[in-house]
């Protein structure tokens, strides 16, 4: 097989080398783009790490399983809030396998984003020893403090869950997906 170029004809071996080199360059660019997303590390902080930070963690991971998302608490409760787990399960996001971890586990790591989701964590966050590129605070009401009928309390979990989903999807779209 012979290929014709502006300066004459090229043999098949030369053309294969040319296209193989081009594919390697394009493949390398795709790998670099994918690697950028895969290496994105986000830590979500709250006080107890049982409800809001767990919901945000679950949503971010559901938007893009290639990014690394962790959540932690300044005073981690050691357990997940069952109503938060149920509220997330209701819309198909399973956080039941998450653990409630102390922020101490993550202090010496590097993060692209550290996001606090409640006032207590924002005011009482420890100094991070590792490199943090962006620190954000996005506050949400704590549905575990809701008082009233069972329907009202459940409604608060749903309201806060939906707010977290909306705000964190906007964050993901603006800062991760399109970056």
What structural keywords apply?
6 strands; two-stranded antiparallel sheet; alpha/beta; disordered N terminus; four-stranded parallel β-sheet; 46% helix; single chain; 179 residues
How are the elements arranged and paired?
Blueprint: E1 2-5, E2 8-11, H1 12-38, E3 41-46, H2 52-63, E4 68-73, H3 82-90, E5 111-116, H4 119-124, E6 132-137, H5 150-177
Parallel strand pairs: 3-4, 3-5, 5-6
Antiparallel strand pairs: 1-2
Helix pairs in contact: 2-5, 3-5
Protein model, in words:
This protein is α/β, with parallel strands linked by helices. It is built from five helices and six strands; from the N terminus they run ββαβαβαβαβα. The protein has a four-stranded parallel sheet. A two-stranded antiparallel ribbon has the order 1-2. Helix 4 links the parallel strand 5 and strand 6. The longest helix has 28 residues. The N terminus is likely disordered.
Summarize the structure.
46% of the residues lie in helices and 18% in strands.
Computed CA radius of gyration, to the nearest angstrom: 23 Å
Helicity range of the residues? 40-55%
The end-to-end span amounts to 43 Å
Shape: globular
Question: Which regions are unreliable across 5 or more consecutive residues at pLDDT < 50?
Answer: 1-6, 24-29, 31-37
Regarding quaternary structure, what we see is single chain
What strand line-up does the widest sheet have? 4-3-5-6
Order of helices and strands: EEHEHEHEHEH
Which percent range describes the beta-strand content?
15-25%
Number of strands: 6
Largest sheet: 4 strands, parallel
> What's the average pLDDT?
82
Number of helices: 5
Structural class: alpha/beta
